[in-house]
Amino acid sequence: MSEINVTPFVDVMLVLLIIFMVAAPMLTVGVPVELPKTAAQALPQDTEEPLSVTLQSDGTVRIMETEVSRDELVNRLRAIAAERADDRVYLRADGVVPYEQVAQVMGALNAGGFSSIGLVTDVGGPSLDDQN
User: Which subcellular locations apply to this protein (predicted)?
Assistant: First the structure.
């Protein structure tokens, strides 16, 4: 018999697929935030772990999972920016947070040395066309 048996190969691939499907959601930052829904596409991923700043519904600010006061936010961001090669940061803001607070955090990110700010949203929400 000179044929290749692909059944074990398919079995292994399905097991790996299940492992990656279970492990992928665990790789995100674990701060609970109710993100607003938009129709925007996701940004491409890079090799360096992206810096994530979270603005929670109660107004607290977190860099990755560490809570930071607003007074020391710019200094912390400058120290982080000095160590990173990429100036990209992802801002995750709860949907109930007023726009003024989001704009203040975005200003602090810019003052801290991050010029490329991506706003994180959930995909699948209403678009502007749906509201008209």
Answer: Cell membrane
- Class of domain 31-131 (CATH, top level): alpha beta
Confidence of residue 17 (pLDDT cuts 50, 70, 90): very high
Which residue ranges make up each domain of the chain? 31-131
Place of tokens 């977190």: 62
Q: State pLDDT tens for residues 75-120.
A: 998 988 888 877 788 888 888 888 888 889 989 988 888 888 888 8
**Listed residue (80, 86, 82, 76) closest to 48, CA to CA:** 86
Distance, CA of 113 to CA of 95 (rounded, Å): 25
Spatial CB neighbours of 17, under 8 Å, sequence gap ≥ 6: none
15 neighbors 98 (Cβ within 8 angstroms): no
Paired strand residues for 66: 63
pTM score, two decimals? 0.60
Report helix, strand or coil for 62: strand
Beta carbons within 10 angstroms of residue 42's beta carbon: 9
> Sheet harboring 88-93: ordered strands across?
66-68, 61-63, 51-55, 88-93, 116-119
